[in-house]
Amino acid sequence: MSSVIRHPLIPKKILLLWRCIFLIALGVGCANSSVFARPNVVIVLADDLGWNDVSYHGSEIATPTIDNLAENGIELDRFYSQPTCTPTRAALMTGKTPMRLGIFGPLSKRTATGLPLSEKLLPQYFKENGYSTYLVGKWHLGFRQKEYLPTARGFDHFYGHLTGGVGYWDHVHGGGLDWQRNGETVYETGYATDLEADEAIRLLAAHDKNKPFFMYLSFNAVHLPNEAPAEAIERYGHISDRYRRVHAAMASKMDEAIGRLIDSLNDEGLLDNTLIWFMSDNGGLNPGVYPQEIQERYADWVDWFGKPLPIDYYEFIRGNVQEGGSDNTPFRKGKNTVYEGGTRVPSIIYWRSKLSPSVIPQMITAQDVLPTLANAVEINLGVDESNMDGRNLWPVIAKAQSGATPDYITRAADGDAIYRYPWKLLKLKSGKVELYQLESDPTEQSDLAASMPEKVSELSLALEQFPRGQSVHPSRFEIFWDPDAFGGDIDRVPWTEIVR
Question: Which of 135, 215, 451, 463 has the highest CB neighbour number within 10 Å of its CB?
Fold first, then answer.
């Protein structure tokens, strides 16, 4: 029993502080006290998880762990990513709009550089403030030069894959094995989602409890290819569409992995002092995101040539066109489009000891994550914060205060969009301009462009004037001759040996 007698007028934190001083004097220390311990932070990033791929949104896919986070945490009802993976990751890491950084879409395996080296990244801020920093899973922000790798950009430890997606069993991307631990190729068997959870749990067990940590658990799931253990697929035998059936199994396996992580945090005595932010990097992929003529063209080619198509580039595109199993209902379209199905995604913040359950209706975006987390754990970003497009919205999340949402710019295969909430303007590559009022029309059914020319002009000008960085992407010709592929045969050295 403690020798400190609590007086009713003395705050609990002061009593704990006295106790720590007393223990330090005895040489015992107070590593387990919440007085001095900065909170740990875990970002859990799903890949291509659609709005209706979680059961708390009404999906037939069982996601009990994610549902529990939503029920007992803060549900971000209007959280927006970018329409594709690399841009969202760039926004998370920098607090900036990817277009400003010259990132306009996913990095191809042929991309020579990556996220500009002039940018200071989220793990670097945390590391400077005494945090251990871990990345488990997908990077996709630069993979051909050492200075672009995670361990050169602020992470103490990296396990997973550098490129945009790997086979879940073979861990191959674009002809090369892409599975490593801190620059060393790892040859191991197992399902990628399970292996990622295993690594995260090992890191927690070995972590020095006297230091806070930042963990970025960036799952490959539920990105293509459609692969899952047989027993997980069997649970969804009632789903007739084969791609949706495997997609559901992949989502459930990811949910199980998140549950294992949370159990480990609890077992290690870390959960009460750990902020968990769950989100998807973009909306889900399904055939409906592609124009009808594209779907019909690839269906014809399959009828003529069979699968796989004889040209690798077209086979890569075919998989994306035909095999996506996600569902973004009730929103339009999905991954790689500027419609809501491509950008409005599930997101939850959970902090058991600090945050009460609620639903936040304000628009919050991927570029707000860095400044918001910095405020939550009391990291001073200094002048860097004024150079960010994102804003600190922690008062909105933790204290239910109102806050201004800055303009948000997105780009996808079908065009560009600007959000000035509740307004959203789309400038499509077809030449069409569309305008929606998202508060009254979240499913984008009533195009107001013709009836509101002044609002169209205002937002069009803002979109046109937004700065665009020099593109980091290779030419389409280069990509055509050496396209990406998720899993498959090995025809080159592992990705660790490609790095210069």
Answer: 215
Catalytic site includes residue 20? no
Tokens of 407: 């303009």
Peptide bond before residue 123 is cis, with ω within 30 degrees of 0: no
Residue 139 has pLDDT above 80, yes or no: yes
Q: Work out the number of other CB atoms within 10 angstroms of the CB of residue 14.
A: 12
- In one-letter notation, the amino acid at residue 56 is Y
Domain borders along the chain are 1-36, 40-286+324-407+470-498, 408-465
The reported pTM is: 0.92
30 catalytic? Reply is no
CATH of domain 40-286+324-407+470-498: 3.40.720.10
3-state helix, strand and coil shares in percent for the chain, rounded to the nearest 5: 35, 15, 45
Query: What is the architecture, at CATH level 2, of domain 408-465?
Result: 2-Layer Sandwich (3.30)
Distance between CA atoms of residues 412 and 34, nearest Å: 44
Q: Largest Cα–Cα distance in the chain?
A: 83
Catalytic, out of 30, 85, 157, 161 = 85
Rounded CA gap, 91 and 404, in Å? Answer: 18
- Residue 231 confidence class, pLDDT cut points 50, 70, 90: very high
Residue with tokens 């997606």: 165
CA distance 455 to 458: 5
**44-65 per-position pLDDT tens digit:** 999 999 999 999 999 999 999 9
What are the Cα distances from residue 246, in Å, to 16, 234, 484? 51, 9, 22
What is the residue whose two structure tokens read 């060393």? Answer: 184
pLDDT digits (tens, 9 = 90+) for 63-104: 999 999 999 999 999 999 999 999 999 999 999 999 999 999
Question: In 3D, which of 167, 142, 134, 157 has the Cα closest to residue 90?
Answer: 142
User: Is residue 56 classed as helix, strand or coil in its secondary structure?
Assistant: helix
Q: What is the spatial distance between Cα 154 and Cα 378, in angstroms, rounded to a whole number? A: 19
CA nearest to 42, candidates 306, 344, 313, 348 = 348
Q: How far is CA 51 from each of CA 59, 224, 247, 330, rounded to the nearest angstrom?
A: 9, 17, 13, 8
Question: Confidence band (pLDDT; 50, 70, 90) for 399?
Answer: confident
Q: Which of 30, 57, 140, 157 is catalytic?
A: 140
Question: Among 434, 428, 425, which Cα is nearest to 461's?
Answer: 425
pLDDT-based confidence at 21, cuts 50/70/90? very low
β-pairing, 184-185 with 180-181?
antiparallel
Helix extents (H) in 292-451: 292-305, 312-322, 340-343, 369-376, 394-399
Q: Which residues pair with 419 in a beta bridge?
A: 408, 424
